[in-house]
Amino acid sequence: MENNGSKLWRLNKEEKKEEVKSGKALTIRIALSLLFGNIDSNDERQVVPMGHGDPSPFNCFRTSVAAEDAVVDTLRSATFNGYAPFYGQPPAREAIAEYISKDVPYKVSRDDVYLTLGCKHGIQIALTGLSTPGCNILLPRPTFAMYDAVAAYTGLEVRKYHLIPENGWEIDINSVEALTDNNTVAIVVINPGNPSGSVYTRQHLQKVAETARKLGLLVISDEVYEHITFGNNPFVRMGEFASIVPVLTLGSFSKRWLVPGWRLGWLVTTDPTGFLQKSQFMERVKEFISISPEPPTFIQAAVPEIIEKTEEEFFSKCINVLGQDADIIFEKLKEIPCITCPNKPEGSMFIMVKLNVSMLNDIQDDADFCLKLAKQEKVIILPGSTVGMENWIRITFALEPSILEEGLERMKAFCQRNAKAL
Ligand SMILES: *Cc1c(COP(=O)(O)O)cnc(C)c1O
Ligand SMILES: *[C@@H]1O[C@H](CO)[C@@H](O)[C@H](O)[C@H]1NC(C)=O
Ligand SMILES: *[C@@H]1O[C@H](CO)[C@@H](O)[C@H](O)[C@H]1NC(C)=O
Questions:
Q1: For the chain, percent of residues with pLDDT exceeding 90
Q2: Cα–Cα nearest to 202, from 166, 246, 170, 173
Q3: Residue 312: burial class (beta carbons within 10 Å; 0-12, 13-18, 19+)
Q4: Ligand 3 within 6 A of 421 CB?
């Protein structure tokens, strides 16, 4: 098992592509199943799941009562048991349009909003719409692996621009310019960042928008962690700069409302010039949506009330816990010599940290580290190679704080036990 895991992680690009095509993609889910499979069944301690961002099992991350009530009401009404229209129910589209309009200097219309089965479905729709023979797309490194997997399926060539760890994981504009050619159709920006935990400043986003304009790129802005910020920078929507460059905004209830299982997301043309709506790309997007499944109708019907009635207190409580978690992880990891954190997370639910395997005995790389940690300590974290950075690690800190501390203690014990004698 251990060797299989490591081998899969070490496949080269071509082999990985084949794995993806044959349905064995090294997605985060597959990596996680390998890690969970490596757990020692005789170890009676609880698993500490720091591998994927789903805080919903923890009491402190229960969704808002208002959101639960809204869904109960629409379900009980027995009026939303049928199919919904292709692009979503009009009141839900209207509510999302208003929700996004609050953060941009123009009015987003109901017709700009397309409801999706979570943000992942939005990614699938956007990349399918962009895929024409010979085209390529710019993705960040480190990445959210879903983009790579979907691009491989749709036949889009992927080029990776760099995020600079020493610079708060800002986008390396030079690498964006160097990678772009006449066949580059779009750049994906994830802000707040997964896996980086970064939150970009207004100035940086404007610079990215100006660069995209100069290079003729559509910007796909993944804002699934919208408003989940607890550092110095407030959340700014890329759509604020849509008069400079057309922006396709992706989002969902999954992370901000802590309900990834509700599968309610959106794809929005934040585009005051109307350029995007008239494009061939949007024709393909609509075509693909018309052959896609719709999000559950009773969840759609609850959208206006979920947005309107969720108390500010719910959001601030959640941000407070995540901010506390970010403090805990940043401080605790400093006690582990083989790990360095370039930045304290300022948003989302993740931190990327660098691993120095030469300080450890008999650990070959990040995948090996994570597999052995799962086996010895029942702690699940994600190897950086699954997000494009070998010998880094992605950790989610969206756990009940006491459980997070427990997980970090076990990581520390693991590193001490496996440390090379000086
Ligand atoms: C979690 C996540 C998604 C997927 O969101 P869903 O709404 O659960 O489909 C998309 N993009 C990023 C960056 C994420 O972290
Ligand atoms: C890219 O397009 C420009 C303008 O259409 C053209 O002059 C140039 O030769 C093209 N470059 C390549 C590498 O095809
Ligand atoms: C890793 O640790 C070794 C041993 O302590 C040290 O010599 C080396 O400089 C470290 N490498 C990095 C990249 O920090």
A1: 86
A2: 170
A3: exposed
A4: no
Closest listed ligand to the CA of 391:
3
**Alpha carbon nearest to ligand 3 atom 12, residue:** 356
**Which atom in ligand 3 lies closest to the alpha carbon of residue 340?**
14
E runs forming strands in 95-178 = 113-116, 136-141, 157-164, 170-171
The CATH number, out of the four listed (3.90.1150.10, 3.40.50.150, 3.30.413.10, 3.30.559.10), of the domain defined by the range 4-61+313-417 = 3.90.1150.10
> How many C-beta neighbours within 10 Å does residue 215 have?
16
Residue 158 confidence (pLDDT): 95
Q: Does domain 65-309 have CATH number 3.40.640.10?
A: yes
Centre of ligand 2 to C-alpha 182, Å, is 6
Cα–Cα distance between 181 and 359 in angstroms, integer?
42
The reply to whether ligand 3 has any atom less than 6 angstroms from the CB of 358 is: yes
Pocket probe for ligand 2: among 135, 136, 182, 217, the residue whose CB has the most ligand atoms within 8 Å is 182
Q: What is the tens place of the pLDDT at every residue in 339-368? A: 999 999 999 999 999 999 999 999 999 989
Give the pair of three-digit tokens for residue 400.
Answer: 């009940």
Ligand number nearest to the C-alpha of 421: 3
How many Å lie between the centroid of ligand 3 and the Cα of residue 190? Answer: 31
Give the integer Cα–Cα distance in Å for 244 and 184. 18
Domain range annotation of the chain:
4-61+313-417, 65-309
Question: By the 8 A CB rule, do 367 and 6 touch?
Answer: yes
pTM higher than 0.90 for the full model? yes
For the stretch 197-251, pLDDT in tens is 999 999 999 999 999 999 999 999 999 999 999 999 999 999 999 999 999 999 9
For the CA of 181, the nearest atom of ligand 2 = 13
Tell me, using a 6 A CB cutoff, whether residue 356 lines ligand 3. yes
Ligand nearest to the CA of 134: 2
